[in-house]
Write a structure and sequence with these properties.
Layout lengths: L6 H23 L42 E2 L2 E2 L2 H7 L5 H6 L28 H5 L6 E6 L9 E6 L2 E7 L4 H4 L7 E5 L2 E2 L5 H10 L5 E6 L5 E6 L8 E4 L2 E5 L4 H4 L6 E6 L2 E2 L5 H10 L3 E8 H10 L16
Antiparallel strand pairs: 1-2, 3-8, 4-5, 5-6, 6-7, 6-8, 9-14, 10-11, 11-12, 12-13, 12-14
Keywords: Repeat
Protein name: PDZ domain-containing protein
Pfam families: PDZ
């Protein structure tokens, strides 16, 4: 079974396969040997889809054992009742039904992609690869800059340690750390229950290179890959960063974008705290393919309430390098 980052990619691939099948049938009818359909080039492979509902920890994963299940984020409990009342589309059953639209891009254009994933339209989009979402625990290696800093601030909330600021062009930004990520370990030391001051002190005492962090991604975030129409529109409206309406028969409607979700990134560029006019300008400057990272409003508002809103203007809003 082939998987696609967008509905448009699926339609184009199906048309290509149908055309190849017709050619093969014509060759066979003329007495020639029927050639198989041309293989899809690895250059057009898109990253694999991932479940919308945050996965349960794998039994054999050492890092996952630190947090056996994603049932709490900054004091917000993700029980089935809470999810059903505030964002029912993210219940496990609904998530499995919607599993084929969102994608978790890999770390670079040269990454090896699964052979079953096809993206004839989106495969060359750099933004698709910048929007890195794993919905899992990942390891990040940091260094310090010339001033001996890593370029981030953290905040301790409900015994967890969260990234509340990533400075532009800092080592933390270059390593892919993002606002709202949770730090589980620093150089193998579990930081659950540590204060903000203690974590900052640990980072100050670390050597200049090879600082290892175990990071848990922001919960319930996902990416949607959209394609502009002939007028340059992708088909949704937003206000204060929140998706409020979808245009009928647009790429946004076809590919499962949802209202009551906040925009976190556009083609991997952080837009948290960015004014609507500036977000529109970023989208307009994108090519034909636009990948947006979104989060349910229920989770986003809780996250912003817990963080220091005054730091938003100091966030890294630059275009990430691959």
């Amino acid at each position: 079974m082939s998987l696609y980052p967008s509905l448009e990619d699926m339609k184009v691939d199906q048309m290509g396969r149908a055309q190849a099948q017709l050619v093969n049938e014509m060759i066979a009818s003329q007495g020639g040997s029927a050639a198989s359909a041309p293989p899809v080039s690895d250059a057009h492979h898109a990253p694999p889809p991932y479940p919308l509902h945050p996965p349960q920890a794998q039994a054999k994963s050492g890092l996952a054992l630190l947090y056996p299940a994603l049932d709490d984020y900054m004091g917000l409990e993700f029980t089935d009742d809470v999810i059903a009342a505030n964002m029912p589309e993210y219940l496990p059953v609904a998530a499995r039904q919607s599993n084929g639209v969102s994608v978790a891009p890999a770390s670079g254009l040269s990454s090896v992609m699964p052979s079953g994933v096809v993206a004839p339209l989106s495969g060359s989009s750099v933004g698709l690869y910048r929007a890195q979402v794993t919905n899992a625990i990942r390891e990040v290696t940091l260094c310090k800059d010339a001033d001996g800093k890593v370029g981030m601030r953290v905040k301790a909330i409900n015994k967890g340690v969260f990234v509340c600021l990533v400075k532009k062009n800092s080592p933390a930004a270059l390593a892919g750390l993002r606002f709202g990520d949770q730090i589980l370990q620093i150089n193998g030391v579990t930081v659950a229950g540590f204060s903000m001051e203690k974590v900052h002190d640990i980072l100050r005492k670390c050597s200049s290179n090879g600082i290892s962090l175990a990071i848990r991604d922001r919960p319930f975030e996902r990416t949607i890959t959209l394609h502009k129409d002939s007028t340059g529109h992708i088909g949704f409206q937003f206000r204060d960063g929140e998706v409020t309406a979808l245009v009928k028969d647009s790429s946004a409607a076809r590919n499962g974008l949802l209202i009551d979700h906040y925009l976190l990134e556009v083609n991997g560029q952080n837009v948290v705290g960015v004014k609507d006019k500036e977000i529109s300008a970023i989208i307009n400057e994108c090519g034909q393919v636009v990948t947006v990272t979104i989060m349910p409003s229920f989770v986003y508002k809780h996250m912003m309430k817990q963080m220091a809103s005054s730091l938003v203007k100091f966030m890294d809003h630059s275009i990430p390098d691959l």
